[in-house]
Structure formats: C-alpha cells, structure tokens
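Appendix B. Extra example for self-study. Work through it before the problem class; the solution is given directly after the inputs so you can check yourself.
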Amino acid sequence: MARLYIALLHHPVINRRGEVIAAAVTNLDLHDIARAARTFGVRGFFVVTPLEDQRGFAQRIIDHWITGPGADHIPDRRQAMQLIRITESLAEAVAAVTTAEGQPPVTVATAARGYPQAIDYPSLRGVLAADRPHLLLLGTAWGLAPDVIAAADHVLAPVAGAGGYNHLSVRSAAAIILDRLLGQRG
Amino acid sequence: MARLYIALLHHPVINRRGEVIAAAVTNLDLHDIARAARTFGVRGFFVVTPLEDQRGFAQRIIDHWITGPGADHIPDRRQAMQLIRITESLAEAVAAVTTAEGQPPVTVATAARGYPQAIDYPSLRGVLAADRPHLLLLGTAWGLAPDVIAAADHVLAPVAGAGGYNHLSVRSAAAIILDRLLGQRG
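Solution. Structure tokens for the complete assembly:
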C-alpha cells in the first residue's frame, strides 16, 4: 500500500514572469485535489501557505464541509476534505509526515517542463508500492519555485499530451499524476 | 491521429436525488477541460446547455479569453478556449462533428458507476487511433441522465481509484480520461 502524501504550495511559487510570489488559495483546488486524493488513497493533502489570512480562508472552507452545513449536504465530500491539513511551510508538512509515518518522506517535485534527472511514472509507481513514504509537491500559479525543485529528492516527468502545449491546471495535473501513480490500470 | 471531441452536458443530468435537471455553467469547468483538451489534442469541446442565459454566460467567458483582455494576459489560454463551441443540445453537437468530419461520431458516455456493456480504456484507445470520429460525453452535477447513457454507442468504464470512493469532479475525471485515452505513456 503506497504511503503517498500531497502538498499544494502557494509559496514559493512563480508568476508568469518567473518571479517568486505567494499565490491565493483557490476554493476548487481544495475540493478537486481532495476528492482525487481520496479516490486514489492518498494519506494526506497539505495546503501550504505562509499567509495567515489565506490559512484562515482555507480552514473556513474545510470546516464548512467537515462540521458545517456541507457535511450533511454532501457527506462524501467530508471524507475528501478530512484529508486536508493546512500548514505554514513545506517544512511543516514534511515534519507532519515524518511524525505520522515514523520516517521522513521522499519529496517529489512536479513541473510542467522536463528535467534531466526526472523520474518517470512507472519508476515512481514501483517504489511507491514498497518503499518509504513520499510527499508529492504541486505548485499553484505558474508552478514551484526553482529552489523547491532543486531541493526535492526527485522531479517527476511532466504530463505529456499530444504536442508541445502543456498548460494544465494544477487540479487537472494532480488528477492525472495520481491516476498514473496509483490508479487501477485498464 | 485520434479524432476525438468532448461534450460537457449541463442537461439532461441528474442531481443528488437522481432527478433530471439543468445545471449551471461553472467557469473553471470551461478552463480546466479546455486546457486538458488542448493538451491532449482533442478537436473540439462542446459546452451544451438549453438555457439561453447560461449560453450567454459561457460565451462571455470565452470571448474574454479569445478576443478580450485575457487574450493578451495569458495567450496560451486562448488556444485552449478556442476549442469551445456552445450548443443548445447534444444533437446540435453531434451535427457539428458530423459536418466537420464528414461522418457522424461514435458517442461514448461516461459514468461514475460501471455498466455491464462498458468499454475499457485500452479498447477505446485502440479504436480512437484508427477509427471513426468519437464524441465523449461528460455530465455536470451528479452525472449524465440515464437516457443519455442508454442512447450512447458506448459507456466508458469508470475511473477506478484505490477503493470504493468515486467522487471525482468532472474536471478531474475529464483530465484522467483524456490522459488514459490520448496521453503519452511512461
């Protein structure tokens, strides 16, 4: 059984000019990625932002679906939203996984472009099944900052489509990546 | 080269009680599914709703990104949004594909639960590469109405995760389905 966690970083990420920014939390990122995480058996979904008001915003969304009116309205959404943990930094997310699993996770950055040292999907799928806990890093805005990618243990190969166009939303990319790593084939 | 089209139906779809409704158009459905469609080489993305005000809403979103301020702001989004055609009915979408391709498309319904006659992903991927144009039907809200599923030429197998939980957003499901049918493996 794979011990996979996800972290959705809102900082440090880049904008379209390549500048490092803190992006705003998007409601549907939380819903879509939590639902995909629950579907594929991900153990935890960290929403990472250093901005206190954004952490409060994310917490209010989650509370609505776990203990608020949403819990009765759509009970299956509760199961997904319960996977979310809000943290101030990636380091805090890594520490939480380490505590939960008894050992630090292997970190895997995701990026829209390829890197020479990228790990491909079958390889990562293979080690996930038997190996240490892993933490998959997803970037909002225009993606993870170079420092995050450089510091990760692995960089996952980009999702390749039919041509050179590669502008999936982070929600779509997360869904495809989880399916490739954890989905039942066929 | 696959000749695949997508239709996102807002009617007839069901609500959580199984009643047939017309669902509202969601901005991020258009963005996410258009971006995934463009990434995987889909030939056209039909947004189907019988509600005139909803067609107007969808058209304003698209115009913003094709000819409005969005076209300069994020040029790659324009390439995705240009795939969208707004139609009043599924029949109108089928007619448009027939005109564009010179023959009617094979229709493929999608559903969160399995059907005995379901086609699996490798099989559909195989016929897409060499066969007639296909039109993939996606449902908003709680999914396509039974009549739409019954009338389709095929029903695609549901996206299977790690367990029985199967509550992906239509945006996530669309991304995964396109990757399974058209993505480069590896």
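Self-check: The CA atoms of residues 119 and 156 of chain A lie 5 Å apart. If your reasoning did not lead you there, revisit section 3.
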